[in-house]
Amino acid sequence: MGTGKPLILMVEDSSAHAQLLTLAVREATPSAEIRVAENAVTAFRMLSQRDEFAEVRLPMVIVLDANLPAISGVSMLRTIKGDRRWKHIPVVMFSSSALDRDVCLAAGAAAYVIKPPDFAGYVTFARTLEPYLAGKRRLSATR
Predict the structure, then answer these.
(1) pLDDT along the chain (143 residues), means of 10
(2) Separation of alpha carbons 94 and 59, rounded Å
């Protein structure tokens, strides 16, 4: 069940990166809630509000690892942006490499961010999510 706080959905297979961003969000934007999906399948179940996620509301922003196992972050991004239920949700790609930057931006990513090397960088990144959480960087549903 949700808390009423603005929700960030992070799709990240590395528990270390997920934990760093979770702690950074708690420090930088304590008014936000973060949920982590370790793969695209779980994330799609959350977005579809299926099964144990029936009570989970849609996120204000999705932070998506570009390099996921099985279903890649790029494929997931394309699916999100092609689905009328989700295409209005901004997706910030979060990767250790700039390799897929142009592809992701062309596919509709709101931003492409290289994972920072330290916790201070994660806190700085978490602060950049605040406009999305305030609804100031919401994408048009017709885009």
Answers:
(1) 80 95 94 94 92 88 93 95 95 92 95 95 94 70 33
(2) 16
How many Cβ atoms from other residues are within 10 Å of residue 117's Cβ?
9
Domains of the chain: 7-132 (3.40.50.2300)
Backbone φ and ψ for 103, nearest 5 degrees, come out as -65, -45
> Please, are residues 96 and 114 in contact by the beta-carbon 8 Å criterion?
yes
Question: Considering the entire predicted model, what is its pTM?
Answer: 0.90
- Other CB atoms within 10 Å distance of the CB of residue 106: 8
CA dihedral 90, 65, 33, 18 (to 10 degrees): -170
Q: Are 52 and 24 in contact (CB under 8 A)?
A: no
Tokens of 31: 């008014």
Instruction: Give, to the nearest 10 degrees, the angle between helix 119-128 and helix 15-28.
Output: 60
**Which pair of tokens denotes residue 70?**
């099985």
